[in-house]
Amino acid sequence: MEIRVQEAPFDMGAEIGRFAAGRTDMGAIVTFSGLVRDTDDGLRAMEIEHYPGMTEKALTGIAEEAQRRWSLGDVLVIHRFGALAPGEQIMMVATAAPHRADAFAAAEFLMDYLKSRAPFWKKETTAEGASWVEAREADEDALRRW
Amino acid sequence: MTLDILYFAWLRERLGLPRETVETEAATVADLVAQLVAREERYAFVFGDTTGLRVAVDQVLTDFDAPLSGAREVAFFPPMTGG
């Protein structure tokens, strides 16, 4: 398992290549990447704040739970913080499993939990000013299916 | 006991501080909040409605009824928006 919380950009292709390299017992790798989405009123910048220390613990706990629930070979989570521009990669998860059903389910589980149980907060700046992104009820509802 | 209190996102901005150290005998998170609210107006504003807030004790998500005995760090923040 690898959990990385970093300010620097990452190369998703290189990360997937490295994650997949040398595995002969895993038939499936699922990856998800989240990007900064532009808003209707023109996003100028996104700032991601986090809680150093707790962030790593929370992500590790979520990844460990995924490993308990599904048959996984490995999990990779990378999440950035700091200032990001529209189109930039915010985060990625990758799961490796012998079979794809486990890899898909675990990746979705990781995303659902990471969205509302890992201590990150997004702030968007547009021409109208800056505002903190509010959590959506749908994000909380998404946890109930697990 | 001595507690480090951390604030994130709009709570940090509204209070104008990211962290502070307090001496307290509060038994629970709710007691600690009551103590802060009694201290200054800006805390009353931030903690006016705690149903919309989240709290972590020693970096583990918990609720406002949680006991504080043995705790070293309490963090207050809005619902998280990762991913």
Automatic annotation (TrEMBL), chain A:
One of its GO terms (biological process) is Mo-molybdopterin cofactor biosynthetic process. The keyword Glycoprotein does not apply. SUPFAM superfamilies: Molybdopterin synthase subunit MoaE. It is an enzyme of class 2 (transferase). Pfam families: MoaE (PF02391). Pathway: Cofactor biosynthesis; molybdopterin biosynthesis. It comes from the Bacteria. It catalyses: 2 [molybdopterin-synthase sulfur-carrier protein]-C-terminal-Gly-aminoethanethioate + cyclic pyranopterin phosphate + H2O = molybdopterin + 2 [molybdopterin-synthase sulfur-carrier protein]-C-terminal Gly-Gly + 2 H(+). This is Molybdopterin synthase catalytic subunit. It comes from Palleronia sediminis.
UniProtKB/TrEMBL annotation, chain B:
CDD domains: Ubl_MoaD. Pfam families: ThiS. InterPro entries: Beta-grasp_dom_sf (IPR012675), Mopterin_synth/thiamin_S_b (IPR016155), ThiS/MoaD-like (IPR003749). SUPFAM superfamilies: MoaD/ThiS. Signal peptide: none annotated. This is Molybdopterin converting factor subunit 1. The gene is moaD.
